[in-house]
Amino acid sequence: MEFFKVTLSLLVIAFLSANLSVAHPGFNVGWGGNGFGSFGLFPEFYQFSCPQANDIVMSVLEKAIAKEPRMAASLLRLHFHDCFVQGCDASVLLDDSSTVVSEKKSLPNRNSIRGFEVIDEIKVKLEESCPQTVSCADILALAARGSTVLSGGPNWQLPLGRRDSETASLSTSNNNIPPPNSTLQNLLTLFKRQGLNEVDLVALSGGHTIGVARCTTFKQRLYNQNGNNQPDATLDKTYYYGLKSVCPRSGGDNNISPLDFASPARFDNTYFKLILWGKGLLTSDQVLFTGSPRTTMELVKRYAEDEGLFFNQFANSMIKMGNISPLTGFKGEVRKNCRRVN
Ligand code: HEM
């Protein structure tokens, strides 16, 4: 009897939510009815309104990453830079307009974040199949997960149902995204501001197992780490000489170096092994092992020893990061074009 009652209520919910989607195409609630903004995100959000959403995202990603493996890294980073600025609301994708000052010009983003054309291509395909249904904020979350999986990393059940902002914040982008020469204390503070703890900090920093950084982001370590014209003493010597050849004292600011030189396109735990050997590229990477408080050092060691443990925690922390202040229910909108508000 109980079984029939539950099945019947599920059918009623599905029927009502399908009708609501038809009646209000601009306000698509998927199924399960998140209509009043109180239920948060859930993996089946597009189960009825756009069941092929993830397949569409994956087919575009497969092509883009086959063409340029680094694209996986760039897309993973985009989701991070979105979520740390007024929550995961696709604010990072907005271009300048009469009402918007784009985040793309902020210090951490300028000449640095990339992958917008891939997001555009995914959006165009989704609009063809499921008009005004899948938000740009969810596309960023799906693209980050898909990029991780296609690079050999973990998969996870991804909660969905984010909606898109009508605003961006250049100043929040400048203030909330940690700079590469951060102390451990500073990293912990900036992550805490987003509801993330030291376990999340270490696991998510593991995103640096793929992708590259520009010379300008690690130059200080090579030539003047503490204002005494000396290199960072925690840098492995051989690694240091190698880095100097790509990143001279003057000029070469846009030369790039892999964040994990041992396997730059493979999502694995070598990032943590390299840190143990003094071969982390950014100050923010190396301080996870050498900085105080010492709590993060133990985590770096554990993830270096046990890739499965790292993968599990990375997945959990990505879900946590993806949950930062999403717009749900009647808040925000589903943009037709990720670069501008409707
Ligand atoms: C802990 C604080 C973090 C700092 C200080 C930091 C800093 C940086 C910097 C400076 C770069 C290079 C940018 C450039 O050269 O223009 C970079 C690249 C990257 N970051 Fe982070 N990051 C942090 C956390 C994260 C997190 C949480 C993720 C994702 C989970 C992430 C993913 C990436 C990826 C994948 C790249 C390479 C992008 C590419 O090749 O296009 N980072 N990060």
UniProtKB/TrEMBL annotation:
Catalysed reactions, as listed in the record: 2 a phenolic donor + H2O2 = 2 a phenolic radical donor + 2 H2O
Binding site residues for heme b: 208
Cofactor: Ca(2+); heme b
Textual note on the cofactor: Binds 2 calcium ions per subunit. Binds 1 heme b (iron(II)-protoporphyrin IX) group per subunit.
Active site positions: 81 (proton acceptor)
Amino-acid positions noted as binding Ca(2+) 2 in the UniProt annotation, renumbered to this chain: 209, 260, 268
Residues annotated to bind Ca(2+) 1: 82, 85, 87, 89, 91, 103
EC class name: oxidoreductase
Biological process, per Gene Ontology: anther wall tapetum development; hydrogen peroxide catabolic process; response to oxidative stress
Signal peptide: 1-23
Keywords, sorted A to Z: Calcium, Disulfide bond, Glycoprotein, Heme, Hydrogen peroxide, Iron, Metal-binding, Oxidoreductase, Peroxidase, Secreted, Signal
Transmembrane intervals: none
CDD domains in the cross-refs: secretory_peroxidase
Cysteines engaged in disulfide bonds, as pairs: 50-130, 83-88, 136-338, 215-247
EC number(s) on file: 1.11.1.7
Any Gene Ontology CC annotation: extracellular region
Localization per Swiss-Prot or TrEMBL: Secreted
Site positions for Transition state stabilizer: 77
Positions with a binding annotation for substrate: 178
Major location category of this protein: secreted
Free-text function comment from the UniProt entry: Removal of H(2)O(2), oxidation of toxic reductants, biosynthesis and degradation of lignin, suberization, auxin catabolism, response to environmental stresses such as wounding, pathogen attack and oxidative stress. These functions might be dependent on each isozyme/isoform in each plant tissue.
The family this protein is said to belong to: Belongs to the peroxidase family. Ascorbate peroxidase subfamily.
Listed name of the protein: Peroxidase
Species this protein is from: Juglans regia
